[in-house]
Amino acid sequence: MNPSEHAVLAEDLQKRYGRRNNVKHALDGFDLAVPTGTVHGLLGPNGAGKTTAVRVLATLLRPDGGRATVGGYDIATQPRLVRRQIGFTGQYAAVDEILTGRQNLEMFGKLFHVDRRTARARATELLEQFELVDAGDKQVRGYSGGMRRRLDLASSMILAPRVLFLDEPTTGLDPRSRSEVWSSVRSLVQSGTTVILTTQYLDEADQLADRIAVIDSGRKIADDTPDALKRAIGGDQIEVVVSRAEDLPAAERVIARVSGAEPESDIETLRVSGPVSDRVAALTEVARTLQEDGTEVVDIGLRRPTLDEVFLRLTGNRAGREAADGEASTIRGERDRGGPSEQSGDSGESKEAAAV
Amino acid sequence: MSTTTESESAARRGGSKGTASGGAVVLPPLDGPERRLYWAFADCATIVRRDLTHLVKQPANIAWQLGSPIIFVLLFVFVFGSAMEVGGGLDYKTFAMPGMFAMTMAFGFMNTALSVVIDKERGVTDRFRSMPMAPSAVVTGRGISDVIQAGLDLAVLALIALAIGWRSDGGLAATLAAFGLLLLLRFALIWIGVLLGLVVPNQEAAGNLFALAFPFGMLSSVFTPPSMMPDWLGTIAVWNPVSSTANAIRELFGQASPALGDSWVEQNAMLMAIVWPLIITAIFLPLAVRKYQSLSR
Ligand SMILES: Nc1ncnc2c1ncn2[C@@H]1O[C@H](COP(=O)(O)OP(=O)(O)OP(=O)(O)O)[C@@H](O)[C@H]1O
Ligand SMILES: [Mg+2]
Q: Which residues does the UniProt record annotate as the domain ABC transmembrane type-2 (chain B) (predicted)?
């Protein structure tokens, strides 16, 4: 892999917290390769190590092992050069409460070594872009959570950074603010910025990310396009909702014939579904047959599994494992770090599943 | 890994990405080593401006910070003062006022620690650390603005002292030198404050630092001559940097305590009032900057 094609390249990153008898492997052999100009989503359950990964890459945390380059520079030996390339928005809004929104942006602009006039103009632009014009000259401590968050994001976009790290950028935002953030991110990507984005929202990853890395227990367990991840856990489903319970058997018969598999049906919602391979043919066939039979259909459609399902499938095994051995962190702490055999049981399987 | 990537997802996101248009990555200027020093000062000035804005926008804080010295003045001078005998016919007010100046400076490191921990908790420190600014600027900027604030504190205290009848018996130059020594002590303690602010986990914990500040300020010659303390306590008090500053400024105010012992540190208070702050700075400034750079929260 060539660093110039990859805005971020991380190999075998390690980060441990705690002391000898209670070590927590926040990063445990974390790899990541992000092609320049793309958006990479980092997805994972709480405590998976997303924040740690982003903080290590943004030079805020020193890794205990492994290597990484950001914008072509080594995070360990050339942190100053890395900082020139990046924008960083942490998990919690990092703005000055006492200053006004405008003063915040002007201050950060100056600290990016932009001249005063440009810093002023840029602050005005960003206040407009993030709909903070009215609040711009008020102290931040009176801002709502969403306003703070938007100011925080604006602060990391004062220059168009080569690589932008966003740690849960829309957590706590209302839907409109979220889509504003998304469009700001998209316009930065248009200007050539590479974005690494952690998120709890699967639709956010789906909307923004070219690729998604699923992280669990400090390592990557899958890395693919959203579509490929969805495809990996099962293909498309055809779904029919009938109006009366009596019609369920008829719908089941058709779907069973077309999909060649046992359909699932739910008497509560009057919904029947089954896997299909040839999407369009299946849809036409089912629709035609049902119409000919005179079955009253409320809804018919094709459905691809959601990222939620992918996510739960990939990381779900962890919940089971933790319940089974109770003190998961202690056990992880005691074993020699990152023996490949240890992990292959669960995550190896998931990786295979994801790569089908 | 699958390879059906770019075209597919670009299509999925529709026109929003489409073909890249306009704009370009804009990076901050790349500076050679000779510009480093310039930016160290420029960034420091930016930070000082910000810290002073905080000061101006929160006048209540100043009142709050001066609250405890004022209460101490009232307590010691007017309540215990009548029962206090410092010897040599020196009235207690004259003895205690310089002590109170020194103690206010000594307690000042808690303000520094508090400002630092608030920035750390709010994530502002992280934002600074992820930026290409001079890494020293946050720490040095904090130092300069805290000294400015300490100057304000001293001015207010001096007015109060004048109001209750305290006067400097030294000349103008000596009096100004005394205030200079006070600021020097405060300056040295900034680095301890920064370090503590970076080490403690949160604001509540920073509040507990008072348990540290209290003996540091009080186990000294500020309110009682060490010669009147039990031996071991007296020895600690004599070697306390706060005592050196307090004794030195009393000398400069022309009000040297008659109860001054004849140990070497007490006899060389003026020298030690300069040496102690330098030692403290030499140890804690590098520690504070290093801790700031390697923060791992
Ligand atoms: N300063 C620290 N000291 C000790 N343990 C830590 C520290 N920071 C993080 N951890 C641990 O490291 C692990 C990874 O944390 P991290 O914050 O990276 O997770 P995350 O994926 O960002 O989670 P979330 O979705 O909750 O933000 C967690 O188990 C956490 O408890
Ligand atoms: Mg996190």
A: 60-295
CB-CB neighbors (< 8 A) of A52 in chain B: none
pLDDT tens profile B5-55: 333 333 333 333 332 333 567 777 776 777 888 889 999 999 999 999 998
Q: Does A33 touch chain B (CB under 8 A)?
A: no
Domain coordinates in residue numbering, chain B = 1-31, 32-293
Measured from CB, residues less than 6 Å from any atom of ligand 1 are A 17-18, 24, 26, 44, 46-52, 91; B 297
In contact, A72 and A3? CB cutoff 8 Å: yes
Does the distance separating the beta carbons of A192 and B24 come in below 8 Å?
yes
**Residue of B115, B234, B120, B254 lying closest to B174 (CA atoms):** B254
One-letter identity of residue B7: S
Burial profile A330-352: b = 16 or more Cβ within 10 angstroms, e = fewer: eebbeeebbeeeebeebbeebbe
Please give the average per-residue pLDDT across B139-158, as a whole number.
90
Are A107 and B50 inside 8 Å of each other by CB? yes
d(CA B224, CA B289) in angstroms, rounded, equals 36
Find out whether A312 and A234 touch, Cβ atoms under 8 Å. Answer: no
**Rg of chain A on CA atoms, in Å:** 24
Q: Is the pLDDT of residue A323 over 70?
A: no
Confidence of residue A343 (pLDDT cuts 50, 70, 90): very low
User: Minimal CA–CA distance to A121: which of A134, A105, A145?
Assistant: A105
Residue B22 contacts A, CB cutoff 8 Å: yes
Instruction: Check whether A332 has a pLDDT greater than 50.
Output: no
Helix A248-259 to helix A279-293 angle, to the nearest 10 degrees? 150
Q: In angstroms, what is the span from residue A196 Cα to ligand 2's centroid?
A: 13
**Which ligand neighbours the alpha carbon of A26 most closely?**
1
Q: What is the 3-state secondary structure (H, E, C) of A30-72?
A: EEEEEECCCEEEEECCCCCCHHHHHHHHCCCCCCCEEEEEECC
Is residue A14 classed as helix, strand or coil in its secondary structure? Answer: strand
Pick from A231, A204, A199: nearest CA to A214: A199
**What residue owns the CA closest to ligand 1's atom 18?**
A49
pLDDT, tens digit (0-9, with 9 covering 90-100), for B182-212: 999 999 999 999 999 999 988 888 888 888 8
| Ligand 1 atom index nearest CA of A15 | 12
A20 part of contact set with chain B, CB < 8 Å: no
Q: Which tens digit of pLDDT belongs to each residue from B237-276?
A: 889 999 999 999 998 998 877 777 778 878 788 898 899 9
Of A34-38, A106-110, A125-129, B89-93, the poorest mean pLDDT is in: B89-93
Nearest-CA residue for atom 31 of ligand 1: A47
